[in-house]
Design a protein that fits this description.
Distance between the termini: 42 Å
Number of domains: 3
Strand content: 15-25%
CATH class of the largest domain: Alpha Beta
Number of helices: 20
Number of strands: 23
Strand order of the largest sheet: 9-14-13-12-10-11
Oligomer: single chain
Shape: globular
Structural class: alpha/beta
Largest sheet: 6 strands, mixed
CATH superfamily of the largest domain: Glycoside hydrolase, family 3, N-terminal domain
Radius of gyration: 25 Å
Length: 696
């Protein structure tokens, strides 16, 4: 990797040739060209959450929350490597045509490593779930996969949104997230710290909200004291889009646009996504910023461009052709991701379907033939979408099975046709159910109902969910299907927790990407066994939770929730059976070794999970915390020894001052295929192996 000091020296030399006005323009996300220095225009805004986004054709992987459900660091990095390769392929081709538009650069504003602390948050599906350790591990590997290990950065990753950011969307521009020091350092900051110290992430993005009174994109605590001083971050910081404008229009921490620009720049926010830095020269003229302030940030931005090899003639990635985008190999990885991510939540024995016995299948529901149900948000455009209906139909055709289809209901409206009566597809969906051997009900949401404020059509909640129920239109459809007495399998496309009690089996498909339909058909008909695990807790309803605006972790996530969940973090069923036979702990070197056996009749994959609890410290979480995980593939009857790397903080706690300490000496360690909680044991029929670890 190119030496940052060398890149910084080159940036200093280049920036020293710019006028003050030119330097100020380079702090905008849409940085203009400086022809006299041979510098082309560059737009810093690009997205790569689960594939290269918003700039035409690219491979679309499962949404981030679905990738998290795979619980596999190595696989996660492979996905990121494909994304960065396609990003370079597209960039090289577009730049050769002087196309330097938005979403066509090499600075990728991904991953989103916020904590999904409340199931109402519409953007939760952009994250890796509710657990700080899982989020940390996947965030680090995604960043490494994006940035590569060559002489230059393959692309520049961005850790966002720093920090303590997870709704509500409707008030994010004026909201103050109040957070105590224990929750800050135990839950909200670990993934960001690892992004700096382990992954050497090139950039950070601030959040819209205030954090303990300070606007996040102008927070001395976050950007100066923690990020630069405590963690020694050397990359650049960008604002969230139009967040700096909120300083004077919504947060009222400043009075004018020049004051907002000055506050952000002084606190180390180098790049403005938005237009407030158009006032930077006025801020300079008013004495609010110095030329040195502007120069420092400009040099950081050019250090990044130099590290990307954008101003060099020896960048190893310049030779990647456009045709390396959207390939068969990348499609195969997207299919593998979809297969691994889907979670079997319930099954009374109806699954897997036997293609030799099922003659007619009814596929019903607004998400059955929906491309948005595959995509999630922050997505690219695939040339290879396979909807749930298309995947089932292709499989069925090859096996002589008849498929009947009805949209069944609107996604959320009470009728399909504006001139029709309420529930105008009810008769049709009952008819096809009555004429089928089994019903596949494709329900859930899409990114028009759960997503980002401003991007979503969910006007009544700005992208957040009001409750954990299906829209009433779909609920009535499901009730009608169940009333026919035919077996009903619910397939749920969603990015968050929903409570759907109807049906004989339930598959959580997430937003599974371009190959979602193919993966679903394989799982329904038993070609592969489902193996995804929940990266977040499913609750019965929001009444079990604290107020959405309460950022305390009390009664939130599996670590602090004291009620009985609907489905626990880490849970997911299989068509085969697995057993963890033994567990050995090397606490000094940070490893757990276990023997895992596939005791069933079908090949499959599972996830070994390690949880730890300090039995003595008053600072321990209420329940247990994830301290290690590893995915393993086993043929029927096979057993393997699996080594699980433990979290380096496994045997520590965070005190009320936010300090991580080794407080107790006796720890309970659980190694198994789920959490050690009573509900997981009840649902899976087996308990993890418990070991006591004692430190002298």
């Amino acid at each position: 990797m190119m030496n940052r000091e060398e890149a910084r020296r080159m940036a200093h030399e280049l920036v020293s040739q710019m006028t003050l006005e030119e330097k100020a323009t380079q702090l905008r996300f849409d940085s203009p060209a400086i022809p006299r220095l041979g510098i082309p225009a560059y737009n810093w805004w690009n997205e790569a959450l689960h594939g290269v986004a918003r700039a035409g054709t690219a491979t679309v992987f499962p949404q981030a929350i679905g990738l998290a459900a795979i619980f596999d660091e190595d696989f996660h990095e492979e996905v990121a490597k494909v994304i960065s390769h396609e990003a370079r392929a597209k960039y090289n081709g577009q730049a050769a045509h002087e196309d330097r538009d938005i979403y066509k650069g090499l600075s990728m504003w991904s991953p989103n490593i916020n904590i999904f602390r409340d199931p109402r948050w519409g953007r939760g599906h952009e994250t890796y779930g509710e657990d700080p350790y899982l989020t940390t591990r996947l965030g680090v590997r995604f960043i490494k996969g994006l940035q590569g290990d060559g002489k230059y950065l393959k692309v520049a990753a961005c850790a966002k949104h720093f920090a303590v950011h997870s709704g509500p969307e409707a008030i994010r521009h004026e909201f103050d997230a109040v957070c105590n020091q224990k929750d800050m350092w135990e839950t909200y900051l670990p993934a960001f710290e690892a992004a700096v110290k382990e992954a050497n992430v090139e950039s950070f993005m601030g959040a819209y909200n205030r954090v303990n009174g300070e606007a996040a994109c102008g927070s001395k605590t976050l950007l100066v004291d923690i990020l630069r001083d405590k963690w020694a971050f050397e990359g650049h910081v960008t604002s969230d889009c139009w967040a700096i404008r909120d300083f004077h229009t919504r947060h009222f921490v400043t009075n004018t646009a020049p004051e907002s620009a000055a506050l952000a720049l002084k606190m180390g926010c180098d790049l403005n996504c938005g237009n407030t830095y158009l006032h930077m020269m006025q801020a300079y003229q008013e004495g609010l910023v110095t030329e040195e302030d502007i120069t420092i940030s400009c040099e950081r931005m050019y250090t990044s461009r130099i590290l990307l090899g954008m101003l060099a003639d020896d960048c190893e990635y310049d030779a990647i052709p456009y045709t390396d985008n959207d390939t068969d190999e990348h499609d195969a990885l997207a299919l593998a991701a979809a297969e691994k991510s889907m979670v079997l939540l319930r099954n009374n024995g109806v699954l897997p379907l036997d293609p030799s016995k099922v003659k007619t299948v009814a596929v019903v529901g607004p998400n059955a033939n929906s491309i948005p149900a595959l995509e999630g948000n922050y997505n690219g455009t695939s040339s290879r979408y396979v909807t749930f209906l298309e995947g089932i139909r292709a499989y069925a055709k090859a096996h002589g099975i008849r498929v009947l289809y009805s949209e069944g209901a609107h996604l959320f409206k009470d009728r399909q046709q504006n001139l029709g009566v309420e529930d105008d597809r009810a008769a049709e969906c009952k008819l096809i159910a009555e004429n089928a051997d089994v019903v596949i009900a494709c329900v859930g949401l899409d990114a028009t109902l759960e997503g980002e404020e401003g991007d979503t059509g969910n006007a009544f909640a700005s992208g957040d969910k009001l409750n954990l129920n299906l829209p009433e239109s779909q609920q009535k459809m499901l009730d009608a299907l169940v009333s026919t007495g035919k077996p009903v399998v619910t397939v749920v496309a969603v990015g968050s927790a929903l409570n759907i009690p109807q049906g004989d089996a339930e598959i959580l498909a997430w937003y599974p990407g371009q190959a979602g339909g193919t993966a679903l058909a394989e799982i329904l008909f038993g070609e592969i066994s489902p193996s995804g695990k929940l990266p977040l807790t499913f609750y019965h309803g929001v009444e079990e939770l604290p107020d959405f605006t309460d950022y305390s972790m009390k009664e939130r996530t599996y670590r602090y929730f004291t009620g009985k969940a609907l489905y626990p973090f880490g849970f997911g069923l299989s068509y085969t059976s697995f057993e963890v036979k033994d567990c050995a702990v090397d606490a000094e070197n940070g490893w757990v070794t276990a023997t895992v056996a596939n005791t069933g009749k079908m090949d499959g994959e599972t996830v070994v999970q390690v949880y730890v609890r300090d039995t003595q410290s008053k600072f321990e979480v209420v329940n247990t915390h994830l301290a290690g995980f590893g995915r393993v593939a086993l043929a029927a009857g096979e057993e393997k020894q699996v080594a699980i790397k433990l979290d380096k903080n496994a045997f520590t706690v965070v005190n009320d001052e936010g300090e991580r300490i080794a407080d107790g000496k006796v720890y309970d360690l659980y190694c198994g295929l789920s959490q050690p909680d009573a509900l997981s044991v009840e649902l899976t029929g087996q308990a993890p192996i418990k070991t006591t670890v004692t430190f002298e």
